[in-house]
């Protein structure tokens, strides 16, 4: 593990990045907006809000920390000369964004070369800013914590979309969990993970995530007392099939059901 200390100015700079992205995204939210589709086989929307917000954040990083790397959803990755890399998702939840639903957010992570050590989810429309460093987490400066939930029968489970669980083995796993949990809710994207950190959701399950989908959320959930891994129990920072739980006991139980060692 990299033992370098996180400089305090990096949190202040992450706040600046979030503010810059918000000035772009709020210009477009709930207004007529042209939507492009990034993929031929399925609907994967991108808008001027996504592109403009990431461009604004990249410009600030280039000015302030030109030696840092940048990994973002919408533009080419930049390898830095220093260990630090900013991991950006300007609008996580673009489908909600274009539908006028505020279940989206700007994700900003700082990776020290071994792991994400700072994470921020900013929802500028609702004026909610979640921040975590792996040791603590907060919402608008107020400390937050996951809730105790050791049993599936007491748990609330969230998944982004049921379409992700229509084929085996995903459908088999989802059916197994959905039959046991108290409540299943859909949609949410990054917002669902933050509700887990806030102690209102117990499990979030997502297949096929990218690094920029999850890195900012990991220090928030971990700082609030939760656990984030791949479905096989491994490190989730590079994406893949990801599970987050507010209670480590519940996480262990679900991994057991998944057959992870």
From TrEMBL:
Biological-process GO terms, alphabetical: L-histidine biosynthetic process
Catalytic activity: L-histidinol phosphate + H2O = L-histidinol + phosphate
Pathway of action: Amino-acid biosynthesis; L-histidine biosynthesis; L-histidine from 5-phospho-alpha-D-ribose 1-diphosphate: step 8/9
Record: residues binding Mg(2+): 73, 89, 92, 213
Keyword list, A-Z: Amino-acid biosynthesis, Histidine biosynthesis, Hydrolase, Magnesium, Metal-binding
Keyword Transferase: no
SUPFAM superfamilies assigned to the protein according to its UniProt record, in alphabetical order: Carbohydrate phosphatase (SSF56655)
UniProt key word Magnesium: yes
Database matches in Pfam families: Inositol_P
Cofactor: Mg(2+)
GO molecular function: histidinol-phosphatase activity; metal ion binding
Similarity remark: Belongs to the inositol monophosphatase superfamily.
Name this protein carries in UniProt: Histidinol-phosphatase
Lineage, opening ranks: Bacteria, Pseudomonadati, Pseudomonadota, Gammaproteobacteria, Pseudomonadales
């Amino acid at each position: 593990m990299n033992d370098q200390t996180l400089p305090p100015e990096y949190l202040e700079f992450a706040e600046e990045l979030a503010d810059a992205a918000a000035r772009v995204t709020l210009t477009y939210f709930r207004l007529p907006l042209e939507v492009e589709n990034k993929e031929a086989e399925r609907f994967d929307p991108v808008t001027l809000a996504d592109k403009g917000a990431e461009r604004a954040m990249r410009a600030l990083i280039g000015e302030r920390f030109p030696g840092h790397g940048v990994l973002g959803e919408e533009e080419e990755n930049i390898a830095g000369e220093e260990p630090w890399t900013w991991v950006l998702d300007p609008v996580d939840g673009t489908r909600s964004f274009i539908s006028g639903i505020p279940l989206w957010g700007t994700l900003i992570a700082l990776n020290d070369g071994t792991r994400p050590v700072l994470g921020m989810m900013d929802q500028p429309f609702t004026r909610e800013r979640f921040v975590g460093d792996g040791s603590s987490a907060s919402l608008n400066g107020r400390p937050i914590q996951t809730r105790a939930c050791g049993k599936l029968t007491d748990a609330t489970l969230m998944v982004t979309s049921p379409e992700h669980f229509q084929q085996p083995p995903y459908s088999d796993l989802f059916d197994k969990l959905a039959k046991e949990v108290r409540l299943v809710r859909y949609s949410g994207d990054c917002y669902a993970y933050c509700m887990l950190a806030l102690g209102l959701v117990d499990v979030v399950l997502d297949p096929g995530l990218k690094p920029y989908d999850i890195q900012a959320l990991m220090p928030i959930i971990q700082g609030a007392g939760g656990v984030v891994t791949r479905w096989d129990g491994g490190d989730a920072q590079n994406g893949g099939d990801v599970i987050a739980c507010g209670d480590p006991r519940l996480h262990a139980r679900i991994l057991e059901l998944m057959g992870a060692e």
